Amino acid sequence: MSEYNFAYLDEQTKRMIRRAILKGLAVPGYQVPFASREMPMPYGWGTGGVQVSAATLTPDDTFKVIDQGADDTTNAVSIRKFFENTAGVATTEETDKATVIQTRHRIPEAKLTEDQILVYQVPIPEPLRFLEPRETETRKMHSLEEYGLMHVKLYEDISQHGAISTSYAYPVKVSERYVMDPSPIPKFDNPKLEMDAIQLFGAGREQRIYAVPPHTKVVSLDFEDYPFEATKADHCCDLCGATDSYLDEVITDDAGNRMFVCSDTDYCRSRREAGHVGPMTKENAA
Amino acid sequence: MTPLLQVKDIQKHYGARIGCTDVSFDLYPGEVMGIVGESGSGKSTLLNCLAGHLEPDAGQVVFDTRADGPVDTVTMSEPERRMLSRTDWAFVHQHARDGLRMSVSAGGNIGERLMAVGDRHYGDIRDKAIDWLGRVEISEARVDDRPTAFSGGMQQRLQIARNLVTGPRLVFMDEPTGGLDVSVQARLLDLLRGLVREMGLSAIIVTHDLAVVRLLADRLMVMKDGHVVEAGLTDQVLDDPQHAYTQLLVSSVLQV
Amino acid sequence: MIELNDVSKSFTLHNQGSAVIPVMEGASLKVSAGECVALTGASGAGKSTLMRVIYGNYLAAAGKVLVGGLDVAKAEPREILALRRETLGYVSQFLRVVPRVPTLEVVAEPLLALGHDRQIALGKAAGLLKRLNIPERLWALSPTTFSGGEQQRVNIARGFAHEYPAMLLDEPTASLDAQNRETVLSLIEEAKTRGAAIVGIFHDIEARQRVCDREIDVSGFTPGKAA
Questions:
Q1: Does the pLDDT of residue A247 top 70, yes or no?
Q2: DSSP states of chain A
Q3: Cβ-based contacts under 8 A for chains A and B
Q4: Which of A24, A179, B31, C66 sits in a 20 to 30 Å window from B42, CA-based?
Q5: Which residue among the candidates A46, A48, A240, A241 is catalytic per the annotation?
Q6: Which of A151, A156, A223 sits opposite B105 (nearest CB)?
Q7: Catalytic status, residue A236
């Protein structure tokens, strides 16, 4: 028997996951425990995201997978193929053509719409974990809204580094209630967390699902005198010239030369197709 | 005047063993109550029942809250009790390590309670922390150091600063000078005395050291085997002890 | 101001086979505002004991101990604490202080406890220390290292910092030279003039005769020898 049930998981499992998703959407930012299944990939390789995608996909969906912004890395390719095999859904690399997007550690540059769902892969869902190792205690802190400790971490950053040095997985307060770890996206992406699409977060190893419904208020934690800044490298994309996208730094040789390129490969491609050029493109053309 | 704390018939058993029983007293604003007794007397059990760390088997601990007047903290909801312990109440542990976050800087330790009640200005929080370090005689230069780099006496003073920064009205102390050198104890007791008076604090101090109660406490309760055997003004209980056990305790103190 | 009615006191030494030692019986006396009454009697007759009963330091076994209308024998601890803060001062024979506190603060303590302005309180303390010839260079030091006489003068300064309506003085002129004894007696006279009721123990006959209006022999209260 070589046929898979649609999207690999059995129907009961998908129902269980959907219940968790609905609960997560009803309580934005709250970590819902779920019975994470054994998937055909090890923990730490996106099992949470895959389970959420599997429960969310329908046969009419178009699926996109990115890993740190790129569609063509090993992991993104594997997961895309996985769903092509087990769900038979259409897949794409173009952000605006996708209906469900699974991502590892980035939010696409293109603005997402109300018809789209963004599924994040989450390693450690608990934002307080590094300060308070006890699960019993962090659960209480969330339920009692005791988040002083989160600001202690930011305080320590400023006292040691002169500024809040957290550059990814920057904690946010969702809907003025729960403090959430937005997964290891760069803090540059934090402002995008307020979007029109549905956002679902899956942590397979830790067995938690959480969600942010469309148009939800998401505020990055900060101090009045040290406000949050969505910073990025002081550069433009060397291929397409974009100044508003998050950049990857690529070492080009062992003489110290490097170039900066859009981390979101689809965004870069669409800009280049539209005729935009960057510093390196000119050189290449020359 | 309403008592700040009304303790009524507190009882706590460990199986068939009595932890503490039949304890009742009223504490008024600005009063310091000492509870003395030897190991096993039930004084720590009592303190933990009063402070909400242990649930008593019977009895009430009625605290005069700012918002709602006298409320029995034993039957309070946990969120309310936790909020109380961050604002109006403070607990100074015997071992500073139990009352501090050892991996957070001194400034962060003091600032935590402020941040927990909503302070969001880094500069202000830091200034308050530095001010409090000064009040507990820790050099401002140590504000970013971790408590692991502090001596025992300094850790204890940091714990006190961390507890008092939000201006609590009632402080519970469990052997606050236990394990410290004599000269360090003297300094700490003097500091506590000054702060208690300056801030108009009420305090309940558990100790086995009679010199500490003589110095800090207005009133005294003597415990033995889970019972309060004598209570009254500190100087009266120590100078004119009525109960046999108190007389024994007082006469056992070594003269220097 | 101070009134004792049929007060008795005994000590029960539980650890010595529950031996009961009666020390006082049927003690009655009255001291009005502006009066100074001396307690006399042989050593061990119970003068200090009586004073401590008035202060609430010793528990009376029976009778009424009224100070400013409050029955100390039956009062709540906080009532006695308030009484000692505002109304009843006590200068004992020995200075008992917290280590590390400077002399100036020790003397100002009763005023600070009443909420007086800090600078004013320290000013008054400085004045008293000057009168009692404690050199200014010692004011920042803790009195624990002073001589017996110096400690006693600090003790007295503290006792007179606040203008108590009632005062108990236990050997206030002991270990003092003539000049300082004179100062203390003046302080007592000033207190009387402003209306304080004073009970004192003076072994020094001259001092007693100088400031005291009456004498009460406490041996009259010794059990078995009722007057």
A1: yes
A2: --PPPTTSS-HHHHHHHHHHHHHHHHSTT--EE--PPP-SS-TTSSHHHHHHHHHH--TT-EEEEEETTBSSSHHHHHHHHHHHHHT--EE-S-GGG-SEEEEES---SSPP-TT-EEEEE-S---TTTTT---HHHHHHHHHTT--HHHHHHHHHHHHHHSS----BS--EEETTTEEE---S-BGGGGGGGS-SSEEEEEETTTTEEEEE-TT--EEE--BTTB-------S---TTT--SSS-EEEEE-STTS-EEEEES-HHHHHHHHHTT---HHHHHHH-
A3: 54
A4: B31
A5: A240
A6: A156
A7: no
